[in-house]
Every structure is written in C-alpha cells, then in structure tokens.
C-alpha cells in the first residue's frame, strides 16, 4: 500500500479553474461559495490556487461543492472524457 499521491484526471485542475473563471469570480469569492456548500471543510484562497494548479487535491466534499457551485455533476469534474458545459450559472448563489 503506497502513500504516494492518488492519480488525478488530467483535466481536473483545469476544470476547477475554468469553473471560477467562467463564473467571473475571484479565488476569495470561490472560497466563500465552497464554504457555503461544504461548511465543515477548511478552505482558503491559497487552497483554491493550489487546486487550480494541481498542487493540492480537494477533499471529496469540496469536489461536490465545486459541482454544486457550477450546477454540474461530479462526473463532469472527474471524467476526462466529459467537457465542462460552455455556460455555467451566471450568478452563483450561496447555499442557505
């Protein structure tokens, strides 16, 4: 049983960045949205940067939060054969 990094889909980090840029929000705004969908998870803007560059892997609840923010299935994020839709929700909403 190795302790190395898990294999990630090749397009995963790029998809995470594309979500934020297509929504036209800053990394700090993305942090707020992710926290609203995964309130028990620790996340800051430095993490978002590392997720987008592939240097850090988000937890499963944060992956789910990204999908909810974007209005897509987690399959779209983790399956390299599925591209992100061109149009994402225009006004991301915080979960209440």
Question: Concise description?
Answer:
The protein is mainly alpha-helical and 96 residues long.
Q: What is the helical fraction, as a range of percent? A: 40-55%
Main sheet attributes: strand count, strand direction, barrel closure: none
Query: Please, what is the CATH homologous superfamily of the domain at 12-78?
Result: lambda repressor-like DNA-binding domains
Q: What is the CATH class designation of the domain at 12-78?
A: Mainly Alpha
| Radius of gyration over all CA atoms, rounded | 13 Å
Structural class assignment: mainly alpha
Count of individual beta strands: 0
Beta-strand percent range: under 5%
Low-confidence stretches: none
Q: Distance between termini? A: 41 Å
Mean pLDDT: 90
Give, in order, the helices and strands. HHHHH
CATH fold-type name of the domain at 12-78: 434 Repressor (Amino-terminal Domain)
Envelope shape = globular
Do you know the CATH architecture of the domain at 12-78? Orthogonal Bundle
């Amino acid at each position: 049983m190795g302790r190395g990094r898990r294999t990630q889909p090749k397009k995963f980090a790029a998809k995470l960045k594309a979500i934020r840029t297509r929504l036209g929000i800053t990394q700090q705004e993305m942090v707020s949205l992710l926290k609203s969908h995964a309130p028990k998870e620790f996340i800051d803007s430095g993490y978002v940067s590392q997720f987008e560059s592939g240097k850090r892997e988000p937890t499963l609840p944060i992956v789910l939060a990204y999908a909810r923010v974007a209005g897509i299935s987690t399959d779209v994020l983790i399956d390299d054969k599925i591209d992100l839709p061109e149009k994402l929700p225009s006004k991301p909403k915080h979960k209440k």
